[in-house]
Amino acid sequence: MQMTEVTYTDAIPIDSYGPGFFRIGGEVIEGGAVIHAKGARSWSGYDDPAAVLALGDDIDFILMGTGAAMAPVPASFREALEAAGIGVEPMASASACRTYNVLVNEGRRVAAVLLPV
After folding, report:
1. Nearest in space to 25 (alpha carbons), one of 13, 35, 37, 17
2. Do residues 86 and 77 touch, judged by C-beta distance below 8 A?
């Protein structure tokens, strides 16, 4: 079997995650994080929809990492994003990290919005 290393030419990958942190493009973000093709930043949680809404012109949907397990996204957060035309796909944060890396490698307009595990 031939292995091919993935290179991200137009996006920043999620390198790893652990208890309370995400390693993105070689840098550590403690706590929650918002990652998209052009950058990454810390995120304070569902009370901060503005950080995600600001990406509206650059993304079509978010992968909502809800922590260690999949959990419902609060209605007010989901409704604010959907009103701006941003779809929300909830999943456990580990799944959101893996899925984000696959989708940005395909050139998709996606962001990962992650709560820590």
Report:
1. 13
2. no
Compute the Cα dihedral for 28, 42, 101, 115 and give only its sign.
positive
Are 113 and 52 in contact by the 8 Å Cβ rule? The answer is: yes
Q: What's the confidence (pLDDT) of residue 38?
A: 85
And the tokens for 115?
A: 């709560």
**Domain tally for the chain?**
1
DSSP H/E element including 112: strand 110-114
CA distances from 5 to 2, 18, 38, 98 (A): 10, 23, 21, 15
Residue 7 lies in a domain: no
Q: How many residues does the chain have?
A: 117
Q: pTM for this one?
A: 0.91
- Judge whether 38 and 25 are in contact, CB under 8 Å: no
CATH of the domain at 95: 3.40.1230.10
| pLDDT given for residue 102 in this prediction | 95
Which pair of tokens denotes residue 92? 């456990």
Low-confidence residues of the chain, pLDDT below 50?
Answer: none
